[in-house]
Amino acid sequence: MTPDLTFVTETFRKFNLLIFSTGLPLPKICLTHARTFRGKLVYRRRISPLGSTTSDFELRISADYDAPEEDWEDVVIHEMIHLYIAFNGIKDSSSHGPVFRKMMNDINLKHGRNITVSTRTTKEQQDSDKRVRGHFLCIVKFSDGRLAVAPVAKSRVFQLWNEFEKFPNAVALKWVGSTDPWFNRFPRVIKTKLYLTSATELLPHLKGGLLLGRDGNTVRVVSQRCSPDELLP
After folding, report:
1. pTM here?
2. pLDDT band at 45 (very low <50, low <70, confident <90, very high)
């Protein structure tokens, strides 16, 4: 199954009662298309002379993965442990330090769960998305020779077309159209965000790519017969 808002909300409420005695506030729940994690809790921390406080909790769940219902429940509970620690101002040595691990192990033992330390996705999970999707790719070369790629959301292509040229230390860039499923692993960006990669990693997936150009508010194909090397900036 792939999670939806109803499932995540009902799962949160179910285990808030069963495990946390309804002691957790319901965070804002947001579905994403992230390829690097299945669940993530984000919040704002304010520090004052009286100490630190946390607020604006948001539970992000990636809807790009198909997994058994029990696995998704464990993902939600994992993030609920983070919420419990942050909401109650409990100090831990790291994100998954001794406090987190003790709570996780206690819940697994008492409730028969299989919560793990990480909800980040593996390379195998990232490679499992074989859907053919169109991508507008901005490929950037930095002054130190490194390369980065950004699959840009279709609605933001014109807004970001010139913005990437201003990216710190960027010396060259090209826009490429591709349907290679390898690019599905990257979340589509709506701001100037780049994912570091390398020519060795990119080149096999640029085969069949189209060099793109812009005429006003129209994206046009400059060349359909570029070799992968020619699509690198």
Report:
1. 0.56
2. confident
